[in-house]
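Treating backbone geometry as a discrete language has practical consequences that deserve illustration. The sequence in question and its structure tokens are set out directly beneath this paragraph.
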Amino acid sequence: MDYKSLINLNKLPKHIAIIMDGNGRWAQEKGKHRIFGHKNGVSAVRATTEACAELGVQHLTLYAFSTENWNRPQTEVSALMELLFLTIGKEIKTLQKNNIKLSAIGNIDTLPEKSQKALLKAIDETKYNTRMTLHLALSYGSREEILQATKKIAEAYKLGKININQINETDFDQYLYTKNIPDPELLIRTSGEQRISNFLLWQIAYAELYFTDKFWPDFNKEDIYQAIYDYQNRERRFGKTSKQIEENA
């Protein structure tokens, strides 16, 4: 089925978030080392980013490296950091060519200095691009994000900068890594796993969840089109009834 032709461009999700899972298992199935899967996953990143930009999606967030991933074997962590450094350097031209702005969420300070510099350089060089923003979640953990936000709010209260009785969800948003980024409306996870894995726990409260059995290196443009088509055929009620949705359509 040609899912792209079925997509309603007037009902695109503004923000899509993806848990890119299955690189290691994809490689192991082929008798290769896990890093072989991570390297091949870069092609899926490129294809997905291009597809979202071409359609008109405004924000794409990719879960590239979690706080828990630091617990993997040191050789794999080192290889992933080197791959991050090399990939960012290679992809800047593609981002510029496609008018895509690069951003990052997470505890970036924990990345190796070389990777940090490459990332910040790419973010600076693409900061005026307007077609779409690609957010990389790096050294990211949602519980840590919420905890840090809570500490900042407590500190602001201690300094008399906020009235704790008046703070609301919108105010809380401003203390998160995702400040000023709209919440994802569609969350995709590859590899057949059906978990959230500490990713955007606050932000995906009303996101539609889409799981596919495909490993990330096999995920391509047709898969993102299919996910968006599936999203567009769901009824999003936000606590209302179907009748209320129909009346307000």
